[in-house]
Design goal:
The complex is a heterodimer of chains A (153) and B (168).
Chain A lengths: L2 H11 L6 E2 L6 E4 L4 H10 L7 E9 L3 E10 L4 E10 L4 E3 L7 H13 L2 E3 L33
Chain B lengths: L11 E2 L6 E2 L2 H10 L4 E2 L6 H9 L12 E2 L7 E5 L7 H10 L5 E5 H6 L22 E3 L6 H16 L8
Helix pairs in contact in B: 1-5, 2-5
Classes of the chains: A alpha/beta (153), B alpha/beta (168).
Bound molecules: iron/sulfur cluster (SF4).
The site of iron/sulfur cluster (SF4) has 12 residues of chain B, from helix 4.
């Protein structure tokens, strides 16, 4: 299936969702954060889509909002899809999908560790890379660290 | 005993007997310097060069150096790689588990002062000597096996100067 067919199927099942396409990425669509969990559940369980593999989850800091990117792939159908979610700074949390895909468990911990986005219902949301007592979220654009040695020009 | 070129000046043969006399210093130092067992301690890319040095082409065994995977059997810790702040307490713990006498070689820019991660970096320790004492620094990114060997020879020179008299 190509993206148009996938989108058609999704739109039939989620009439309330707009599925705004991403002009920079032909495989990606933007979705609402509240719908994400049910969408992921749907694309995993639907026989025609059968997205059996979560490639990765990542996050991007755009300063005035954060974006989460979920990449899915289907081994049996050989097609892929990226779901993007915009999170406002005022509400940096989203429902975890780790009970659907085991990959999501550590990916979400990593995003929590480095960006400070909370995943609700995650079984074990702890820091994964940084020391446990670390303060702040290093990959945020406004992150500063007191012992940072700035490179001279 | 290929590495010991000359016999020590203190060795004497007693007439009519097989007993050899030497200083304890010379005896122990030679034993130590010719069997430096180093700990397997690869932290980042420098470890590849450390492995190459240990493998057949460069052959660390010539110096009596064999890697041990337990700190309790090692005399030398070759810190080969980037030490993150999270790793630093573990490095110190392993160092403290090694029996005396123990030596440390800081291999590569990262172990010396953070190397390529010196600027604009929140996660890397700026030099292993902030945590444990270092005997020999081997610069490079990564140092070639020859450079590491040079560091080991320098360490042997240092071990030769050990003496029981001054030891505190
Ligand atoms: S000094 Fe260079 S080669 Fe060695 S660990 Fe650091 S970055 Fe890697």
């Amino acid at each position: 299936m190509n993206l148009l067919e996938i989108l058609k199927l999704l739109k039939e099942n989620f009439p309330q969702e707009k599925f705004i396409e991403d002009s920079n990425n032909s495989e990606a669509v933007y979705v609402e954060e509240n719908n994400l969990y049910s969408l992921v559940k749907f694309i995993k369980e639907n026989q025609a889509l059968c997205f059996d593999y979560l490639i990765f989850i990542t996050a991007i800091d755009y300063k005035d909002y954060f974006e989460l990117v979920y990449y899915f792939y289907s081994y049996s159908k050989n097609h892929r899809l990226a779901l993007k979610v915009k999170l406002p700074l005022s509400n940096l949390q989203i429902k975890s999908i780790s009970n659907l895909y085991a990959t999501a468990d550590w990916n979400e911990r990593e995003i929590y560790d480095l960006f400070g986005i909370k995943f609700l219902n995650h079984p074990d949301l702890r820091r994964i890379l940084m020391p446990e007592d670390w303060e702040g979220y290093p990959l945020r654009k406004n992150y500063t660290y007191q012992n940072l040695i700035i490179k001279p020009d | 005993m290929g590495i010991i070129e000359k016999t020590a000046p203190y060795i004497e043969k007693l007439p009519g007997g097989g007993i050899v006399l030497t200083t304890i210093d010379w005896f122990f130092n030679n034993a130590r310097k010719n069997s430096i067992w180093y700990m397997l301690f690869g932290l980042a890319c420098c470890a590849i060069e450390l492995m190459a040095t240990g493998a057949a082409r460069y052959d660390f065994d010539r110096f009596g150096m064999i890697f041990r995977s337990s700190p309790r059997q090692s005399d030398l810790m070759i810190v080969a790689g980037t030490i993150t702040l999270k790793m630093a307490p573990r490095v110190k713990l392993l160092y403290e588990q090694m029996p005396e006498p123990k030596y440390v070689i800081a291999m590569g820019g990262c172990a010396i002062n953070g190397g390529p991660f010196y600027y604009d970096n929140y996660s890397v320790l700026k030099g292993i000597d902030q945590v444990i004492p270092v005997d020999v620094y081997v610069p490079g990114c990564p140092p070639r096996p020859e450079a590491l060997m040079h560091g080991v020879l320098a360490l042997q020179e240092k071990i030769k100067k050990n003496t029981f008299k001054n030891k505190k």
